[in-house]
Write a structure and sequence with these properties.
Blueprint (H helix, E strand, L loop, with lengths): L6 E4 L2 E4 L2 E4 L11 H6 L5 E4 H15 L3 H5 L5 E4 L2 H10 L4 E3 L4 E3 L8 E3 L1 H11 L3 E3 L11 H29 L7 E6 L5 H14 L3 E4 L12 H10 L6 E3 L5 H10 L3 E4 L1 H7 L2 E5 L15 E5 L19 H5 L2 H9 L4 H23 L12
Parallel strand pairs: 3-13, 4-5, 5-9, 9-10, 10-11, 11-12, 12-13
Antiparallel strand pairs: 1-2, 6-7, 7-8, 14-15
Helix pairs in contact: 2-5, 5-6, 6-7, 7-8, 10-13
Length: 376
């Protein structure tokens, strides 16, 4: 990795920072193909071990040549461990599984069998899938969970991380990957308790990883960003190491976290918003002199609004995406109104391009303590 953190080097190329990684949970960004995503300026994806091990299944992924060959994506792929999904599934419906010190046992509703995800299996699966950035299994919590639950989560997350690192090193030696080995990231838990965040970060730093992630739900019960805890977590991780704001994808929240020093972001929000008819637009041409990410710098375009019926204008001023270069708001409104599936593709392409342009703007305005990225 670059000492200045303007890039992260992976087996499938260098990733310029900051970077937004859309969620390709099952191996695809919904409604698009790899060419659409790349043309929108996206250079890396996040896929999910928890879901992929169920559908299409590990043997199928390997039979299809791994995640890159299967999905047609030639850039870096990060695979989320599945800790957050286990949290969502089990903590909200304990009948579907349990979390123990050994790992996670779960049986999603409708599944014919139980699945087990241990720290060791988590690493084995991600490496077998061909991931460029592997994420340790962690025990996720919500910020409002009790102190006892937060303590248990931190203890388990640290132990699981140590087991992940040991298995990662064993697998790398066995596979003889040499210089083409993937990166290993650990996840900092601790909820909203600063002392636990510090304890977790220090223990993970002692183990030693290539990068780290902010773990746990990043919003409070009111849906507001946990800025204090996010800032503390960034301060706890030395600035020469990358930090991923896991699950942060709201444009405003991404901007806030990037100014704290976070370099990596992932979320299903921009693409889910696109499919639901909520498109992102800059307040003015973002490449125009004087444009700043201050004040009301972006807004939502709700495509279902009747005022767009005859609107002969692109979604966002100055947008160079495939959608805005060819189609008007009025046409997108029409596609949505008649239930045409083309709308989902065109809307997703636009929101992805918005996020990639936002990354360029953030790179250009990065804090002096972080070296600015050079983008072609």
């Amino acid at each position: 990795m670059s000492a200045h953190l303007d890039t992260v080097s992976t087996c499938h190329g260098s990733l310029l920072l900051p970077a937004f990684l859309p969620d390709a949970t099952f191996g695809t960004v919904r409604a698009t193909d790899a060419g659409d995503v790349y043309a929108a300026g996206i250079r890396a994806l996040v896929m999910n071990t928890f879901h992929l091990m169920q559908k299409p299944g590990s043997s199928t992924i390997q039979a299809l040549g791994g995640l890159h060959a299967m999905s047609g994506w030639n850039g870096p792929i990060m695979t989320d461990s599945g800790g957050f999904q286990a949290y969502s599934l089990i903590r909200q419906n304990p009948k579907q599984g349990r979390i123990t010190d050994q790992g996670i046992i779960f049986q999603p509703e409708g599944a014919s069998r139980k699945f087990q995800l241990t720290p060791e299996k988590c690493i084995q699966l991600q490496l077998a899938y061909g991931a460029d950035i592997v994420v340790c299994l962690d025990d996720c919590t919500h910020v409002d969970d009790s102190p006892d639950e937060q303590h248990a989560s931190v203890r388990r997350t640290i132990r699981w991380a140590a087991r992940c690192k040991q298995e990662f090193d064993r697998q790398i030696a066995m596979r003889r990957l040499g210089d083409r080995q993937p990166l290993l990231f650990a996840v900092v838990q601790g909820g909203g308790i600063p002392e636990l965040r510090r304890e977790c970060a220090e223990a993970l730093l002692d183990i030693g990883f290539d990068g780290y992630g902010y773990g746990g739900w990043p919003l409070d019960a009111q849906g507001d960003l946990l800025t204090d805890i996010l800032a503390l977590t960034r301060e706890l991780i030395p600035p020469h190491l990358p930090l991923h704001a896991l699950g942060v994808g709201h444009p405003e929240y991404v901007t806030i976290c990037a100014r704290m020093g976070y370099q990596l972001f992932d979320s299903a929000l921009p693409t889910r918003d696109a499919r639901s008819g909520r498109l992102y637009a800059f307040a003015a041409d973002p490449r125009a002199p004087g444009f700043r990410l201050d004040g009301r710098w972006f807004h939502y375009v709700y495509i279902d609004d009747d005022r767009h019926i005859k609107a002969d204008a692109p979604v966002s001023p100055g947008c160079d995406c495939y959608t805005c270069a060819r189609y008007s708001l009025g046409y997108l409104h029409h596609l949505r109104a008649i239930g045409e599936t083309l709308f989902y593709r065109l809307a997703t392409i636009h929101n992805l391009r918005f996020m990639s342009v936002l990354m360029d703007l953030l790179a250009a305005t990065r804090r002096p303590s972080l070296a600015p990225a050079t983008r072609e």
